[in-house]
Amino acid sequence: MGASALAGLVFAIAALAAANVLHFEVSWDLGNKDGLVTWATLFLGVFLTGWLLWWAIMVRPGPRSLWRGAATGIIIAVVSYPVVFTLTELLQRDAATVGTLSERVRGIILVTGLTLMITGFAMTLIMAVVGAVIAYAVNRSRPQAEAAPWMPVVGKGAQLAGVVAAIILALLVGSFVTLSVIPTNARSLVPDGKPGNPAASYEEAMAAFEAIRKDEAGLGLHERCPSQLLTHGHKVARVVIYFHGLTSCPAQGEELAQALFAQGYNVYLPRMKGHGLADPDTLALMDLTAEDLVDLANQSVDLAQGLGDEVAVVGLSAGGTIVTWIAQYRPDVANAIAVSPFLGPYVIPPWATNAANTLALMLPDIMLWWNPTETVGEDAQTYAFPTPSVHTLAQVMRLGRVVEEGARQGPPAVKQIGMLLNSADIAVSNALAQQLIASWRSHGQEVTVKTLALSRLLPHDLINPGEPQADTKLVYATILELLGSPPAGNAD
């Protein structure tokens, strides 16, 4: 067993190195209770799996060929995924936030399957090489054991393991390549001309807002969640639109809106489709599409044209994704500020985002419990949904992919762009946000980026003052700085 334990140790160290090379997000916070894989759970899970499977497959009489070692490495890689996720579920999850045993088991199976199909091929290839190298080293240091009477049976088992490993590797590589090359469906998400039908006057904008509120009146919304509008009674120099995050509602931005209003802005807080319902167990979010988000963006910008001479947009998370779309395609907006835009999940490396998005859209829709990477204040719990769905997240990612593709092909329409990123955010991928910024800058566009330090340990929801560990004083001041000087005066 000593040699097998050494092999397990080598596989564990290789897994740590591979996670770094492949840009897997692995937490250094060994005490986290958010369900994040840590370096310790990754090391322990791969070590135990490597130890046992190397002993079961390789420490037997018969040839320890490089092929046999590589096949064992592939099997160790695949089996390590559920082992690591199980350890994470047991050790890195707050017991007060977990569901039933069956829910937790289904969650582990779901995450294991999705992760293997998206990124598993890369880790299995690396582990196959590691297995072959270990087999080579063992053969060099130790002579082959003499054949035993039962060796043909063991040999057949090893051959079967090799065939299974080859099939697994082929399936994982094939699934990743297929998912990666399928293009994002951008139909109806990219304007084919000048978008929008802007309000020509303050009165027209107010009439449009009243029509929205009338439609919302029959939806059974939470009392704080209809679309909101703060005006000075007439058109002003500048108006700000705030787009709330996924599973939240306009109430998220109420205090930010008050701060902006006090600076002389008119402020509009639109409600995303399917959000803000009084029933916390509603499945309305399952119907949300990227087209709905584009419609909301256009409708909101059109309405805001009658509320201010200049229009600025601010959005958090999925709202930030909407802001990036506006920045790319709406030239009638003066300033776009995306706060922690959701272009992809924190846990998925950028190179696998397209495959992840494609897979999520292809699968049957699955309801998820509250995002384990977020904490939610008691105030937010009364209007924030606990059950986003896989397709809902995928549709927001789809919009982000369209924006990224557009940014690679041409400059953004908005000339003043800002982005506020949170280094402690464990919900969204800051790496994808940086890629989008780089694409915009490649066309000569200036993008002002503010990054909140990791040491502040701020939550994903930077806007809601009821969020635990929130620092809205800092965040609001940064947003006001990105907006620039407050309106010098009101327009008639």
TrEMBL record:
The keyword Cytoplasm does not apply. It holds the Pfam family Hydrolase_4. It comes from the Bacteria. The chain crosses the membrane at residues 35-57, 69-88, 108-139, 160-182. It comes from Paradevosia tibetensis. Residues 236-368 form the Serine aminopeptidase S33 domain. SUPFAM superfamilies: alpha/beta-Hydrolases (SSF53474). Keywords: Membrane, Transmembrane, Transmembrane helix. The lineage of its organism: Bacteria, Pseudomonadati, Pseudomonadota, Alphaproteobacteria, Hyphomicrobiales. This is Lysophospholipase. InterPro entries: AB_hydrolase_fold (IPR029058), Hydrolase_4 (IPR022742).
